[in-house]
Amino acid sequence: MVRFFITGGNPLRGTVRASGSKNATLPILAACLLQGAPNVIQQVPALKDVTTMCDVLEYLGARVNREGDSIRVDATHIQSLEVGEDLMRRMRASNLVLGPLLGRFRRVRISHPGGCNIGSRPMNLHLKGLKALGARIEEKFGYITVEAGKLEGAEIHLDVPSVGATENIMMAAVLARGTTIIRNAAKEPEIVDLQNFLNRMGARIKGAGTDVIRIEGVKHLNSVEHAVIPDRIEAGTYLVAAAITGGDVTVTNVIPEHLEPVLAKLKEMGFLVETGDEHVRVAAQDRRPRAVDIKTLPHPGFPTDMQPQMMALACLAEGTSVITETVFENRFKHVSELRRMGADIKVEGQIAIIKGVERLTGAPVMATDLRAGAALVLAALAAENGTVVEGVEHIDRGYEKMEQKYTALGARIMRIST
Ligand code: EPU
Question: Which of 220, 241, 325, 328 pairs with 350 at a CA distance of 20 to 30 A?
Fold first, then answer.
């Protein structure tokens, strides 16, 4: 059991560097399975989810070596085409092996990922896309088996712009015969990074970042080196930390355009926002933040992965904020914990109505998932007296050295493992 003890009340000040993006790293590591030569991935964050993806690759037979923030993956010898229940339960994103293994070996079997703490998260769009490329799908005894004699390019329309489905289809289509077109594709920056990585390997993909992605199948891929993009959600979380504590924080190693939807809301709330080529600064002004309305949407809309953190901030705003979660059906688990800290929040279906209060007070709270955990830490940094946040294991999945980064900004936060 890992907990944070946090004594709130210090305005955070200073500069913090964002790490490489978790959600860009995971598909890029999986994409290394597409070919039998080593690749080197740089700026990889030291996170539990990254370790799990490395465990998946090693389980399948790849050689994985980590040195500092670089990971070398050599997938020349693959011994297994199956990911079992244990690895799938540890991390849903293990399902990202579907596309590359199908593309290279024409067969893959994974334990069904099932639902999780934030929603039911079906796999139908991943499977629909792979089927359109010519794969046969069997779902039996808790496993999904995907096989294909040959893969042929196809036109695929996604009902919703799923990030994971777009990534799996892109990876499978790279080695298919002919052209694949994905319509209503996800447009997240992590999709663009995957396209850049695959193209560097020799793939022919265009359009990532728009809602139509075109993949011309190729026969061979080469080994490459690639540095993943900075983590926009981690950066956004530290900027909200500046805002919620009444501080002044600059986050470096960011691509400011990736943070636009978050920065727009921080400005609307009355914070000073400054952007440079590779940094963003957020500073509190001498008044309480104003309430905002937020609706989560696929990129370039407001990211669901920043919703809990912005809710923590809205708890202390002047007036009533309305937050609508449209991406995941169960992403309000932080609400009951924020209430324990004195927040005034009412939930009706997918809508949370937050009446700002003047102060939050420390309480024992439980992180139920990664971003809920990040939100509780933010609330604790702003709260009067001490807070114990349990479930830090969830936070470790997606934030590199969180307590060290906060401490460097002047926070009082301690990790206790029992
Ligand atoms: N969906 C379907 N069918 C599918 C796939 C998705 O209905 O076949 C639905 C989902 O149920 C959900 C919506 O589509 O309601 C969006 O899900 P998406 O597939 O886009 O999400 P994901 O690929 O599973 C990634 C990130 C999440 C992030 C979402 C949305 C990774 C490894 N994970 O998940 O990150 O919230 O996109 O942006 O990239 C996090 O980092 O905390 C996190 C949860």
Answer: 241
Q: Given the CA of residue 304, which atom of ligand 1 is nearest to it?
A: 36
Q: How far is the CA of 288 from the centre of ligand 1 (A)?
A: 34
Q: In tens digits, what is the pLDDT along the chain, a chain of 418 residues?
A: 999 999 999 999 999 999 999 999 999 999 999 999 999 999 999 999 999 999 999 999 999 999 999 999 999 999 999 999 999 999 999 999 999 999 999 999 999 987 778 888 899 999 999 999 999 999 999 999 999 999 999 999 999 999 999 999 999 999 999 999 999 999 999 999 999 999 999 999 999 999 999 999 999 999 999 999 999 999 999 999 999 999 999 999 999 999 999 999 999 999 999 999 999 999 999 889 999 999 999 999 999 999 999 999 999 999 999 999 999 999 999 999 999 999 999 999 999 999 999 999 999 999 999 999 999 999 999 999 899 999 999 999 999 999 999 999 999 999 999 8
Could you give the residue numbers annotated as active site?
116
Mutate to test the pocket of ligand 1, among 162, 169, 237, 350 (most ligand atoms within 8 A of CB): 162
Which ligand 1 atom lies nearest to the CA of residue 26?
Answer: 32
With beta carbons less than 8 A apart as the criterion, state whether 164 and 100 touch.
Answer: no
- Side chain identity, residue 174: V
Q: Which of 370, 376, 311 is nearest to 346 (CA)?
A: 311
Residue 167 beta carbon below 6 angstroms from any ligand 1 atom? no
pTM of the predicted protein model: 0.98
Ligand 1 site, residue 162, Cβ cutoff 6 A: yes
Instruction: Look at the block and give the residue holding tokens 């579907």.
Output: 98
Regarding the beta carbon of 160 and ligand 1, being less than 6 Å apart is answered yes
Q: Residue 63, SS3? A: strand
119 Cα to the center of ligand 1, angstroms? 9
Give the strand pairing for 272-275 and 248-252. unpaired
